[in-house]
Specification:
nucleotide-binding; single chain; 2 domains; alpha+beta; serine/threonine-protein kinase; Phosphorylase Kinase, domain 1; Transferase(Phosphotransferase), domain 1; five-stranded antiparallel β-sheet
Amino acid sequence: MAVIRERRLPNKTLTLELPITNCTTAADCCPHLTLAPLPPAFLTDLRLSDLDKIKILGHGNGGTVYQVRHRLTGVLYALKSLSVGDSIRHRQVSREVDILRFTDSPTVVCCHDVFSTPSGDIALLLEYMDAGSLESILAARSRRPFPEAALAAISRQVLLGLSYLHSHHIVHRDIKPGNLLVNAAGEIKIADFGVSKIIRRSLDPCLSYVGTSAYMSPERFDPDSYGGNYDAYAADVWSLGLTVLELHLGHFPLLPPGQRPDWATLMCAICFGEPPKMPETVSGDFRDFISRCLQKESSKRWSVEQLLAHPFVAGRDQSESDRAFCDLISSSPPPVEF
């Protein structure tokens, strides 16, 4: 989900009262939601009426994300409003709530509370990531490529997030630049679990056609050809490889710059296209790291743990890579606001 970032707050605050009923949490108003126990991060004494909407941050997966401010403390949050429609959409929202209430990691965006509105929508109160997303940073840089040192820091942080999720049997299924949120300290956190899945059995099907088509792995399109010895977590590795390469090239790696493809074009590029070309100037470690992620056969892709030990990630000075990423964030101009 794209998130717009700004360097300072607007001079005037648009106060929009949020609907509220006597029930103030999803558990109160939506007993059909099966929710895991709350991790320590949740603040159960907040109410929707305590929050003032400031602006829209972005849209995605059936929801709208607002920047909101707590009226008494002045703390900024992101409020994600999710509509609950048909049974399929209901399951998606329930799953996202379950995952966010279960996860407790610095590599995953923190959910502070869950509310329900009179219309039946669900609102998630999330931590506000003040530097936007990797997609918004790339756009603010006019899609100028990220340097390898910064990409090493990005890869390490996202891999740590995937390691946490996968160790808890969660497959994200929509890793892309817009779903990787950033704060000014250079921390990257995985967000938007609308199409994610908790694998409760070893043979749970995770090949369903959900998520963003451009970042889907070949086995998601054609499981018969590319899903041999199927590893449910390998699709997240493919998406990570495309994401990191896109940040380096400045455009989606499998198509020419500026092309706006349809579904069939994307499927052909992902399943039958040649491996993406990389500039001759890239290091051998970077080239090998990407190739390990973008193996068409899911069983041939490296695991998250293997990639964390890859020389492109583990062979670099971590503080130097982190500094390169922070410098990139601080030097990026603010994107155009809504």
